[in-house]
Amino acid sequence: MQVFLPDNAPFTEAQRAWLNGFVAGLLGAELAPATPGAPFPAPAPAPQGEDFPWHDPTLAIDERMKLSADRTFERRLMAAMGQLDCGQCGYLCKTYAEAIGGGAEADLGKCVPGGRVTAKKLKELLAQRALGPAAAQPAAGAAPRAAVERGYGRDAPVPASLASSTLLTVPGAEREVRHVVLELGDSSLVYEPGDSLGIWPHNNPDEVELLIAILRAKGSEAVTLPDGAVVSAREALGRECNLRMPSDSLYALLASEAKDEADRFRLSKLAEDDAQAEALGVHDVLDALLEFSSARPSIGEFVAALGRMQPRLYSIACSQKRHPREAHLTVSALRYEKNDRAYQGTGSAFLSEHLRPGRSVSVFVQRAHGFRLPADLAAQVIMVGPGTGIAPFRAFLQERTAAGAAGRNWLFFGNRRRDADFLYRAELEEFAQKGLLNRMDLAFSRDQTKKVYVQHKMLEAAQELWRWLANGAYLYVCGDAARMAGDVDRALQQIAIREGGMDAAAAKRFPQDLARAGRYQRDVY
Ligand SMILES: Cc1cc2nc3c(=O)[nH]c(=O)nc-3n(C[C@H](O)[C@H](O)[C@H](O)COP(=O)(O)OP(=O)(O)OC[C@H]3O[C@@H](n4cnc5c(N)ncnc54)[C@H](O)[C@@H]3O)c2cc1C
Ligand SMILES: NC(=O)c1ccc[n+]([C@@H]2O[C@H](COP(=O)([O-])OP(=O)(O)OC[C@H]3O[C@@H](n4cnc5c(N)ncnc54)[C@H](OP(=O)(O)O)[C@@H]3O)[C@@H](O)[C@H]2O)c1
Fold it and tell me: Which of 129, 157, 303, 368 has its CA 20 to 30 A from that of 437?
């Protein structure tokens, strides 16, 4: 490791090691220099200008709304977003909120990570504004969005095709995870480790046929899409419509068509506020038709009343240095049961089940927002990626190998059971055997009575982990935002107390300071 402090600098050996590592990290990340002479990461200065305390994907929506309660309308809209800044909606959380608040964006259903909860909260906030004094004056319009280069945004996708889809979990495991290989063909798409691939999924074709049959339609009827394109109803339902989340317009249409008075009453209530939908057994669009059997609109009106399909993002799991014309994905197939019905996730079921080999899919590269390998090939890298969180780290390891990076690599991986869902086991073990993966700590949560998670493994290895950090290591976390990411953050704080001798307040700041130095990067969803 490069040494920045002279041997006679007034620090203990551990402090000097830490500071050298910290400065090395700063230089590697090409960020602002640390406070000279500080033995630990320079404490973050008070935020300049506006801060966004709710902009943390590990916070629950109620907490985020509380933190934004005294802010402007646009900022409260922002707090309702998924807080990932993943770009899937075509904006960042702040700019999507500003576009809605300013009236430039009417679609409240674009935030897939935020899902129903975000869509509902946005609707509620807009309804409150409509009642309030600001109703007549929406804030100044959002700046127009810049044109997107082909292949690099949701509105400019390029075709790719499915090369293969193989199981990463054993057949019959509680969850199915697949390794999906997409052929990028002549698109010349370029991506970096850490980037995600956006895909425009198609709906389950069986569900589409069922909807057409329930509406006693043929499916060949011509329907007009919001952009003016005329396509068949089957095509519109297959590719353009959101069949997971019933829209207010759908409830309003069904209310106007319902022959049964009780149906009409319940549907008009749902059109105003769909909070009771789940209690009525209505989880998706098909449920709405099944529950309200007296409401059968024409297929054209039905299609026009549905929300729009949204793209889904998947971390790219390979390095383009090794696979120049492919993008590999690690897809967990979302399947769950409710109301005696089996449901599938749209994007994950499309990639893992409905897309046939050789068939085309529209894709785009979604550039990572601060999730990048260090430029310094000698820097050490610690990766924490349970479940599908492993995906970008397979790309990192391939990239570091191809680039001949000398820095050491340490992986924390976890999943439910070693025998069922140790994703990429053979490849990871080979990386370890070849000395490219210097350390791998595994947490299989359900292989024993007491849950063991990646953060428990981090705490067990606290001394060594602290030593790596003191030597300038970069720490990356990928996977579940709701539970894992916060717990890993808290484990890091505990390690700072235990191994770094920090008090609670300094330890709380420690991950933030490390992040500011570009050495703690998270891609959580
Ligand atoms: C930057 C980024 C990277 C990502 N990388 C990956 C990756 O590498 N691999 C991966 O698999 N995923 C990844 N995801 C998640 C992925 O984008 C999708 O969100 C995921 O596949 C689910 O989408 P879907 O279309 O299958 O499900 P959807 O059709 O979107 O359905 C999801 C919705 O179903 C509902 N739901 C889910 N479970 C239940 C339940 N038990 N009961 C009731 N309702 C439920 C919820 O409303 C939820 O919002 C990533 C996301 C982001 C933002
Ligand atoms: N939008 C969606 O609907 C959707 C669909 C797929 C994935 N995702 C997101 O992607 C994440 C990754 O999904 P995945 O299927 O790969 O795996 P996952 O659900 O994150 O599970 C991976 C491992 O993490 C463990 N785990 C659970 N809670 C944890 C915690 N607090 N700290 C650390 N580890 C914990 C799990 O253990 P146990 O299960 O035994 O507790 C399991 O062993 C999901 O959690 C979810 O947030 C979302």
Answer: 368
**What residues pair up with 409 in beta bridges, in sequence order?**
381
Q: Is the CB of residue 379 less than 8 Å from the CB of residue 27?
A: no
**Are 338 and 402 within 8 A, CB to CB?**
no
CB 317 within 8 A of CB 329: yes
Q: Is 523 in the pocket of ligand 2 (CB under 6 A)?
A: no
Neighbours of 54 (CB within 10 A): 23
CA–CA separation, 279 vs 242, rounded Å? 21
**In which order are the strands placed within the sheet that holds 176-183?**
312-315, 196-200, 360-366, 158-167, 176-183, 326-333
Task: Answer whether 116 contacts ligand 2 (Cβ < 6 A).
Answer: no
Instruction: State if residue 387 touches ligand 2 by the CB under 6 angstroms criterion.
Output: yes
Taking residues 301-310, report their average pLDDT: 97
Compute, in angstroms, the gap from residue 480 CA to the centroid of ligand 2. 5
Q: Looking at residue 390, what DSSP letter applies?
A: G
User: pTM score > 0.70 for this model?
Assistant: yes
pLDDT in tens, 143-189: 556 678 999 999 999 999 999 999 999 999 999 999 999 999 888 89
pLDDT of residue 185: 87
- Name which of 310, 360, 349 is nearest 205 in CA terms: 349
Ligand 1 pocket: which of 86, 178, 314 to mutate (most atoms within 8 A of CB):
314
Residue 79, Cβ density class (10 Å: 0-12 exposed, 13-18 middle, ≥19 buried):
buried
Neighbours of 359 (CB within 10 A): 10
Ligand nearest to the CA of 312: 1
Cβ atoms of residues 93 and 83 within 8 Å = yes
> Of the candidates 113, 71, 59, 121, which has an alpha carbon nearest to the alpha carbon of residue 91?
113
Residue 307 Cα to ligand 2 middle (Å): 28
Q: Is the CB of 249 under 6 A from ligand 2?
A: no
Please give the number of the atom of ligand 1 that sits closest to the Cα of 366.
1
- Contact (Cβ atoms closer than 8 angstroms) between residue 165 and residue 357: yes
pLDDT one-digit tens code per residue, 69-109: 999 999 999 999 999 999 999 999 999 999 999 999 999 99
Ligand 2 center to 105 CA (angstroms):
32
Please give the torsion angle defined by the CA atoms of residues 180, 183, 187 and 193, in that order, rounded to the nearest 10 degrees: 50
Judging by DSSP bridges, how do beta strands 176-183 and 158-167 pair with one another? antiparallel
Atom of ligand 1 nearest to the CA of 313: 17
Cα separation of the two ends of the chain: 33
Query: Tell me: the pLDDT tens digits for 237-291?
Result: 999 999 999 999 999 999 999 999 999 999 999 999 898 999 999 999 999 999 9
pLDDT class for 41, splitting at 50, 70, 90? low
For residues 125 and 80, the answer to whether their CB atoms sit within 8 Å is yes
Residues within a 6 A CB radius of ligand 1 = 84, 86, 88, 112-113, 115-116, 196, 244, 312-315, 330-332, 334, 336, 338, 345-348, 388, 391, 523, 525
Q: Which atom of ligand 1 is nearest to the CA of 347?
A: 25
